[in-house]
Amino acid sequence: MCPKDEHLQKPALSSQFEVGGLAVRNRVVLAPMSGVTDLPFRQLAWRFGAGMVVTEMVASRELVGNAAESWARLRSSGIDPHVVQLAGREAHWMAEAAKIVAGNGAAIVDINMGCPAKKVTGGYSGSALMRDPDHALSLIEATVKAVNVPVTLKMRLGWDDQSINAPLIARRAQDAGVRMITIHGRTRMQFYNGKADWDAIRAVRDVISIPLIANGDVATADDAHEILKRSGADAVMIGRSSQGRPWHAGVLAGSIAHPGTAEIIATVEEHYAMMLDFYGVDVGLRHARKHLGWYLDRFAPQTTGAGKAAIMTSTDPAAVIARTMAALSAGAVPLQESDAAA
């Protein structure tokens, strides 16, 4: 247990910390987000200075069954530490999948007990596991025993307001060998509505001594410092605030200066090319649309509906990027100002 005043003086976001003996280069972590933090996005975020990046959620049983999508999700290239997040509802498959990802270069295995999506919780995975702490612990124990790399855990405050059990599960997870815990300051039933409760995360800090990461509604450096102060956490995790700006974690951590207009436009073009290369043209076109939409919303809000539709529906990669570049270059709102206000 940590003394309650031990974490009042927080280290700088730019400073290192450790997870199970592994060095993390700063205290701003990119959240795992399905459909967002694929390899191209993680590579950019890492290059721009994020402290740590985490793969999209990898379904454990599907990975063991050799599903191509699951294998694609766990890929890494030049990112250290390589952190793979696993999801599942059965201890056997979680353990087998953990062995696979550790054998394929994962330095850290993260367990997903936070995803609120109905298609995940409906299968009794993600945050649904918080409804049965004993069962959740059986998955945690099996995963820890299966590998020699650190195992971490990401979860919410609880299933709903009547079952805030994150402190209980966190303490038991630490006792089972988990080396770091991330808490999103909402219950599952809140999904992403309302405001994350940063103060509620402190109840987890009070019962564990391993590193704690606080997550939820962190968009600015002021947010990052405030959530650390109120939660007592060691680091912050950002998710939706990084959509349309893969450099954002690095900016918050002080790894880089805020990119200027030319660098932002060049990054969008590079990101698009990386996605086409990673997925192939047909699939890459579809996956890239959400990212291009976020870039346009942030940096070219003057783009007409027709102009945006032309970008989103085109099947010609050259036309897509040309129209996107034109829209960003003609942005009525200065790029850095628009980004800072987001």
Automatic annotation (TrEMBL):
<feature type="binding site">
    <location>
        <begin position="239"/>
        <end position="240"/>
    </location>
    <ligand>
        <name>FMN</name>
    </ligand>
</feature>
<keyword id="KW-0521">NADP</keyword>
<keyword id="KW-0694">RNA-binding</keyword>
<dbReference type="InterPro" id="IPR001269">
    <property type="entry name" value="DUS_fam"/>
</dbReference>
<dbReference type="InterPro" id="IPR013785">
    <property type="entry name" value="Aldolase_TIM"/>
</dbReference>
<feature type="domain" description="DUS-like FMN-binding">
    <location>
        <begin position="30"/>
        <end position="302"/>
    </location>
</feature>
<dbReference type="Pfam" id="PF01207">
    <property type="entry name" value="Dus"/>
</dbReference>
<dbReference type="GO" id="GO:0000049">
    <property type="term" value="F:tRNA binding"/>
</dbReference>
<protein>
    <recommendedName>
        <fullName>tRNA-dihydrouridine synthase</fullName>
        <ecNumber>1.3.1.-</ecNumber>
    </recommendedName>
</protein>
<comment type="similarity">
    <text>Belongs to the dus family.</text>
</comment>
<dbReference type="GO" id="GO:0017150">
    <property type="term" value="F:tRNA dihydrouridine synthase activity"/>
</dbReference>
<keyword id="KW-0285">Flavoprotein</keyword>
<keyword id="KW-0547">Nucleotide-binding</keyword>
<dbReference type="GO" id="GO:0050660">
    <property type="term" value="F:flavin adenine dinucleotide binding"/>
</dbReference>
<dbReference type="InterPro" id="IPR004652">
    <property type="entry name" value="DusB-like"/>
</dbReference>
<feature type="binding site">
    <location>
        <position position="184"/>
    </location>
    <ligand>
        <name>FMN</name>
    </ligand>
</feature>
<dbReference type="InterPro" id="IPR035587">
    <property type="entry name" value="DUS-like_FMN-bd"/>
</dbReference>
<feature type="binding site">
    <location>
        <position position="154"/>
    </location>
    <ligand>
        <name>FMN</name>
    </ligand>
</feature>
<dbReference type="InterPro" id="IPR018517">
    <property type="entry name" value="tRNA_hU_synthase_CS"/>
</dbReference>
<keyword id="KW-0820">tRNA-binding</keyword>
<comment type="function">
    <text>Catalyzes the synthesis of 5,6-dihydrouridine (D), a modified base found in the D-loop of most tRNAs, via the reduction of the C5-C6 double bond in target uridines.</text>
</comment>
<keyword id="KW-0819">tRNA processing</keyword>
<keyword id="KW-0288">FMN</keyword>
<dbReference type="InterPro" id="IPR024036">
    <property type="entry name" value="tRNA-dHydroUridine_Synthase_C"/>
</dbReference>
<feature type="binding site">
    <location>
        <position position="85"/>
    </location>
    <ligand>
        <name>FMN</name>
    </ligand>
</feature>
<keyword id="KW-0560">Oxidoreductase</keyword>
<feature type="active site" description="Proton donor">
    <location>
        <position position="115"/>
    </location>
</feature>
